[in-house]
Every structure is written in structure tokens, then in C-alpha cells.
């Protein structure tokens, strides 16, 4: 492509092998795309490996793939390598066999590097600016925080990728969201992305690569940026991106699989140029003033059904006609009445975890709220760190003691209660304050009711027993 380019187009152009013609509507290019790396889990990869076996194919570059058990494993404090569910155990066993047979490194449940795939890859130093990473999980967009084109793919595409290290790909439209001005006190990356999702809707960025920019984005640390890119898929974005900067370079340096020495210095020169050119054209731009962002909570069954903590449950008659039926259904499922202050909604459970918000900075945020406080009577609260490494780092800082003294269960790492594929689930009718990314019907358990928010807001809800503005609590110093 000629002229000023977006970061997205620069990366796609560098990985473009050949053109496959025009897209379905004749506008966007179809191409064969080289993919640098992939991460596999025990839930979405089995059929891909079975397809390779049936076709008698090998994995083209096994060293470009890594496998992590994270979806179906137990997060019980006394961890073993077995689960009670026979189907889940079969997935784990087949996953291990696939690693052995195809020469792919796998982190099993007891591996000290085990964790949620989108937490593990960055902490290994395996996510580097300018890469293309595709994987069988929609939240592969997380890697955009490093200036990476990351996107989720289906099982047949996983098979194609493993066999060829390439994917047929349609170039996306370009969208940019700018958060202007400094981030207000008590507002987090989670609040920024939930604000955007509420503003543009669950499909507002469909068909787009969504780049984030602005003073509030630049001020975030890398882990906060990962939170934003992780949840960009919840407004329909196929790819999320941020230009890599010195914070990213510092995050990468010294990690087990990152470049080092002269190689790292040379790489950083290239990475510094990986940003959108001045004058590059986006198909759509959104500007949000960061000063107007407040702590967010969801009230419905889609991430865009959310409001600031000082809002009330909406009246279906007051929303747009094309959204009315969805609001009615959501309120019925969530058992909420229009006009109810969100801060009056009481909870039964509190959960901190997931690939969205279970990194060390997230746990520190929660600990600042919980130190010197206790979980409210009748609330069951639990924390599942994003990886075994995060768990060890938190324990080294004494965060685990803060959590346990406050009345939280200190669990092992895994996807846990983000989705009902393991033994961490809500009972029907239970209401949960959750730091996860999706609040769909039954997402955390059949009949379970999920309210999305930041880890600090989950902690505040846990100690008050209801959805609470964390800014109203006098926080103790960490």
C-alpha cells in the first residue's frame, strides 16, 4: 500500500505473502498471511490435531506454537493434575498427547509456567511488536497492547495454521479510538474500554482493526493496555492495536524468551518505527474525553449493557426501539427493575480473575481496597491469578495474606469462573461482581448473573455486599 499507513496496514503488509483477490464485497483485499506464532489450549485445539492426523500432516513450525492448559482445569488451592470431569480430563490428556506427537511444547497443569494463555505469552517475552499472532480464542486481541496484530480463529483455521504457518485473510477496515486528557483518579483501563463499548455498542467496531491512542492510553502501564485490547473484541473489533513505546520495550526486556543484548537493541530500533504515520486515514474515529469516564459496571447480559456506578437500571421504554427487546430480556434474566440505582444491587459472589484482569497490577489494585477490610457476610469471594508466575509474585509481595485475611479464597491459576467449563461456577440465581470480560446469559454458570467491573470495583463490592463506587472508600496505602 502507498501513502501514509496505519500501524495495522504496516504489519499486514510485512506479513503478506500473496494476494488472493478482492474480498466478498470487492473492497478489501484477500491475501495469504504469514503468522509468526500461535498459542493453543486444550479446549479449542483437539479437532485441529485430529484433522492433521487424518490427513497425515505434520506441524510446519512446532517451535512457533505453545500449548497451555487453562480452560477446563480446576483452580483448587491444593492443585493436582487430575480433574473430576472425565470429559475435561480427556481433553487435557489428548492435549498432552498432541504436544508429544507433534513436537509442540505444552505447559500442563502442574508446570510452574502454567496459566491463562493470554497472560502466559506476554510474561514469557514471546509477544513482540510488529508480529502477527493468531490463536483459537477471541481474546487473542490482548496482544495488541504490544503493537501486535492478534486475532482469534476457528478450529479449521488452527489446523491450517499449524500445517502451513499461514492463513487466508481479509484485510480489515481501520478504526481509531482516542482517549483525550489524563485519566481521573479511581478510574482504570477497564473503565475506559467499558465506556467505549457502551458508547458504540457490541458490534460498533465489527469488521475493523481498532487502534487506541491518546494521552490516557499513553499513561497506562502495559498490563492496563492489555485489558483494553483484550475487551476490544466485545465491541466487535477483530484486531486491537496500540503503538509500542518505551514502557513496552521495558516490559519485554529480560523475559525468558525475549531478545537480549545487541539483538534487543537492534529490535527496538525497528519497533520504534512501528506506529501509524501522520496523515494516515481511518474509516472511523471516536474521541472520548477521559475526564468524563467514571467507574463502570454492567447491568445486562452484553458488555455494552453497562453504566457508571452512579447510574440506574434503564427503562426499556427510554432506549432506542431497536434495542428495547434486548433490554427487556436482559432485565428479566438479571432480575432487575428499571430505575434501581446500580449501587443498590446486592451480590452473592465476587470473582477476580480471567485473561482480562488477573495480572499482578490487578491484584495490587484489589489488595489496596481489601487491606484492613473483610468480605461482607453472605458473600463468597475468590481470586484466581492469571498464571502460576503471577501467583508466586503476589505471594512474594504478601498479597495473598491480604486476600485471605479479607475473606477471599486464594485459588490457583486458570480461566476459572470466567466461563463455566470447570468447577468454578455460579449457582442459578447467584449474582456476581466479576472482573471478567463477558456477562452473557449462563457465562459463569446456568442462571448465574454477572456484573462486569474492574478488580478494584469487585473488591469494593465484596466488602460492602453490593455494587459500590470504589472512590467512596477511603483506601489505605499499599
TrEMBL record:
Domain Aconitase/3-isopropylmalate dehydratase large subunit alpha/beta/alpha: 10-465
Organism from which the protein derives: Nguyenibacter vanlangensis
Domain of life: Bacteria
Name of the protein in its database record: 3-isopropylmalate dehydratase large subunit
Pathway stated in the Swiss-Prot or TrEMBL entry: Amino-acid biosynthesis; L-leucine biosynthesis; L-leucine from 3-methyl-2-oxobutanoate: step 2/4
Catalytic activity: (2R,3S)-3-isopropylmalate = (2S)-2-isopropylmalate
The gene coding this protein: leuC
Keyword line: 4Fe-4S, Amino-acid biosynthesis, Branched-chain amino acid biosynthesis, Iron, Iron-sulfur, Leucine biosynthesis, Lyase, Metal-binding
Keyword Transmembrane helix attributed: no
Role according to the record: Catalyzes the isomerization between 2-isopropylmalate and 3-isopropylmalate, via the formation of 2-isopropylmaleate.
E.C. designation(s): 4.2.1.33
